[in-house]
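BUG: 3D viewer hangs when loading the predicted structure for this chain

Environment: internal workstation, default settings.
Expected: structure renders.
Actual: progress bar stalls at 90%.

Input used:
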Amino acid sequence: MRKMIWVLVAAYTVVGVILWTAPVFAAPEVVAFTDTRFAPGTIVVKNRERRLYLVQRGGVALRYPVAVGKRGKVWVGRTYIKGMHVRPAWSPPAEVKRDLPHLPAVIAGGAPNNPMGVAAMTLAGGEYAIHGTNRPGSIGRAVSYGCIRMQNRDIADLFARVRKRTPVVAIN
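Structure tokens produced before the viewer hung:
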């Protein structure tokens, strides 16, 4: 009986160690990317595809599904990552507050109703960001006010791969 208890304890311990040490990120899809306009290390958002690419060397990129701006709100342009934030608080921009006046002035980081998710990378020159989401069902759709939304596991993966000043290009 004692031996059986020790076997069970050992089994539970092994399972626990596996769960605690397993990667928390989903692996992005590695795809061919032969567009030579973009240097390795560049983030390319293809709005029509609703995909974000992190360009790698050797004609490949890491591809992630994203949500993009809704009609009339799609962001297109060139910039770079200005800030990197884990569990950021969120203040609705004036346009969002005008459309949704019931929103509070600030939603604390980590709160279940915080639309930024687990991390955000703010973009220079505006109020846009690449960020996680509290609405995973929105991924693959055109629903935002211009920000690029990612699954929380995907923004965590991308966040670990890039730095401030990483170039970002959004195209149709």
